[in-house]
Each structure stands twice: as C-alpha cells, then as structure tokens.
Design a protein that fits this description.
Elements (H helix, E strand, L loop, with lengths): L1 H31 L18 E6 L5 E7 L7 E5 L10 H4 L7 E5 L18 H14 L5 E6 L1 H8 L5 E7 L5 H8 L7 H16 L19 E6 L8 H9 L4 E5 L7 H5 L1 H14 L1
Helix pairs in contact: 1-6
Length: about 280
Amino acid sequence: MNSLAFRIALRLILYPALAFAGLSFFFFWLYAHPKRYPGAQTPAVFGLKFEGVKLKTSDGVELDAWFVPNAASKKAVVVCHGYPMDKSDVLGLTDFLAKDFNLLYFDFRATGRSGGFFATGGARETRDIDAALAFLRERGFSGAGLFGFSMGGATALLSKNPAVQARALDSPYADLRGQLNYIFGGWGRLRRPLVTLMKGWSLLLMGVNINSVRPVSNAEAYKRPLLLIHGADDSAVPAVNSSAIKAAAPAAELWLIERAGHGETRLRAGENYDRRVAEFFRRSL
C-alpha cells in the first residue's frame, strides 16, 4: 500500500513538472525561433531608390539588406527593426531620414529574409550591426549613427562597435530578463519558474545567458550622443525602460510622447518626430 501511495505521489509531482518543463520549452522555442514576417514593401514605396545587398556576419549568417544612397550626404544611419518583424516594418518610421543621410536597412538574423535559426534578443544580433557597419566602411563611411526600434533599439544600445557615432532609440527595453518577467507577469507565482526554465533552455541550446543581455549596463554606449524616444502608453515595452536607461546615462535626451503606444510614436508626434530625430543625427554625426 505504501509503495502504491508513493508511486501515485511521485506521478502527481513528476507528470505536472514534466508538463511545465514542456510548456517552458514551447515558449522558449516560440521566442527564440520566431515566425518570419517578410514584408512586401520596399523603399520604392516611399519614392526612394535603393540597392539590394547581402551582409555576412562574423559567425557566418547572411543578412538581407537595402542600401538607400544619398549622393548629397557623407553621413549614414543604420536602421534596426523590432522583433519579430523585418526591415520593411520600420520604413514608415524612418523614411524621412533619407533626405539627409545614406540609409542601411537589414533584417536581423532569424527574421525576414535573413539567414539564421535562433533570435537571441540582442545577444548575437550585435554581430548583425557589426556586419552593417562593415558594409558601410567598405562604401567609404568611417562611422554611422544607429536608429533602433524596440529590440532593434536594445541591440543598438548593446553594440560596442567603435564606429557607432550616435544612437536614436525608439522604445528599447533596458534588460531582457526584466522584459521577459514583464511579458509573463500575468502568470503570477508560476512566472518565476517559467522564466527560469526558459533561461535554462536558452543557455543549453543557444549558449546565451539571458541575464547578461542588459542594454542598460553598456556604459560604452553612453560616451556617444543618445536620444531615447518612448510612448507614454506603451504596453508592450513600458516607458520605464527608457527611464531606466536615462537614469544610467544622465546626458541622454529622453522624449516621452503622450498617448503613444508601441510603434505609435511618429504617428502621435507627427512632423515633430521627423524634425527632432533628423536634427539629432545632423548634429551628432
């Protein structure tokens, strides 16, 4: 009888634990190997001439990219999109920059039309930015600015590439661990074990320690001009993220846009958005 009770108790503990581990793997896989959303729009939709190019990262991932030249400018800006979208998703957010700068758009690894299997929340995506800057160097640009939206903004802040001259970040997260905790906040007491297991899968299968993906801790980035933009009503990546970055970098500019949700900053700010971002890069590059 005792043996039977033990086996029943063991199964009551073991089976739910295995099911929960499987659930954590499902969420890890969902985020680390996202569905691709290759958009149909190109810069031509905005009246911009462009060149389709391929970039190669230091770890061998081929990235799909667009180079939008501006013969009247010797300055360049690399545009980094958000997760899990692609470069076409930020065309409508940044097309105005083509008036003053050469632009380079690219799809991060594991998104859009780029190669790569795993998305790492910025940990390895910094290599993608390195590849973009290497391409610009080959085209004669000694440095460039970075414009990043959401994950693209977080990755731009993580980059330690010395060729980065300035960063304009729209809705970045300050800390990947904190962002995951926020996303799964509705799980209550199950949140911590769920996120902990997801971190374990990340370390085991990708070699990425989520705890170390902390854009807010990259003090190197704060040595260059930094503009932070965030929607005050952003429910996907709350504005406290940019506030935390501002606290770590007092010299940074922080612009909170009222009534703007995630991806709505330019929509709400209108021409003021174009003017302020363009002026930031004009004086910083």
